[in-house]
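Hi team,

Filling in the usual template for the complex we talked about on Friday. All components are listed, including any nucleic acid strands or ligand strings, so the model treats them as one assembly.

SUBMITTER: L.P.
PURPOSE: interface mapping
COMPONENTS: two
RESIDUES: 459
SEQUENCES:
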Amino acid sequence: MIPGSFDYVTATSLPEAVTLLEQYGDDAKILAGGHSLIPLLRFRLASPSILIDINRITELEYIQETDGVLHIGALTREAELDSSTLIRNRYPILLDTSTGIADPTVRNWATVGGNLAHGDPANDHPATMLALGASVVAVGPDGQRVIPVEEFFTDATFETTLHSNEILTEIRVPAPTEHSGGAYVKLERKVGDYAIAGVAVYITLDDGGLVATAGIGLTNVGPYPIKARPAEQFLLGKPLDDAAIHQAADLAAAASQPTSDIRGPAEYKRAMVRTLCVRTLRKALTRIH
Amino acid sequence: MSKHHIRVTINGTVYEDDVDSRTLLVHWIRDGLQLTGTHIGCDTSACGACTVVVDGKATKSCTMFAVQADGRQIMTVEGLEEDGNLHPIQEGFYEKHGLQCGYCTPGMMMAGVALLSRNPDPTEQEIRVGISGNLCRCTGYVNIVKAIRYAAEKMQSAEQVTVSVGEGGE
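RESULT (copied from the run log):
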């Protein structure tokens, strides 16, 4: 399993990476952590003519909260999320997510930006970022644009609205407000496997304890990362009691589009979305103060 | 196809070579440098047999290109032993019977060394998480966990000895 031939170039700055992308366009692929891309190359499922290695652009590795927004540099390794005090204290949903991705050795290289830009519904950050209402920053020859995550994924697997001459540089997550909290729960056969199903929720309650905002994202139960809008809509204005939690979970299960494969029959996965949604909503509730 | 000149420090020795962009790090280490202690298992970043330490981080060398290692510091299993003395982690695997067939052992030891470098006193659970990217089909992991724990204790007591010797000398 040796990859086909390709050329390789290192970008040492963001402008250099953008120039290279403009030069090579569709023939190029960005090499970040490489833990999705290199297996694809080895199986010859992808055959770009050139790789642009961005691993030396260390200015794209950061986690910082400023002005009510968490900024995560696209090249930030999952291991950095695992060990960040800021993430542990303020964004436990992101810690739930990162610690469930692959294994700790893979997470030393795997990046948050890559997990999103790969457009894989089996990846974990897409569901979490959908639940959080996050945005991504894309930089191209014409400057930068901010794309809400719900407009970043399309209805096609492995596809995003990133242009071929753009590079994802940052993920922006709204900082937690009062009475807000979230969780991500992933059901997996073993460490390192993709999810059988995964559910991310993020909830804000108003002063009266009623749901003011709700975000629910689903992992690996459809051709693209799914935002369970009917379940989100249903929760608005309701108390997060057992009845509401179960009804929202039913709606989330109905919004899933699983197919039967080695990880189980579609009906089982749909049932797991329901169960995981109940668990994440309850877990989110314990994190709301 | 493109060739690239790389310069990589492995176990303290600088190696220079011209590599194809598609040459994987593990193939360069094994076939190019004849450092065959690093094994190849699954080839898909699942099993951890190819684990080496790159710039202090446990790394699956089957999922990195050799050209990416240019300028970096790498430690392989061959770099553990010093002047004929086993590294505490090697001693741990020997003392605690941490291996049977031995295929996963180099990767397990490198994952263990990387874990101990950032967490010198890990709990059993932390060790289990730390090596969760490494598969062993023989041992059931129990003795591997004991081996890494042995190394942690040995390395900590060695540090204390060094410290007290240092103090005594002043």
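MY TAKE: The longest strand of chain A covers residues 197-205. The two ends of chain A are 51 Å apart (CA to CA).

Thanks, L.
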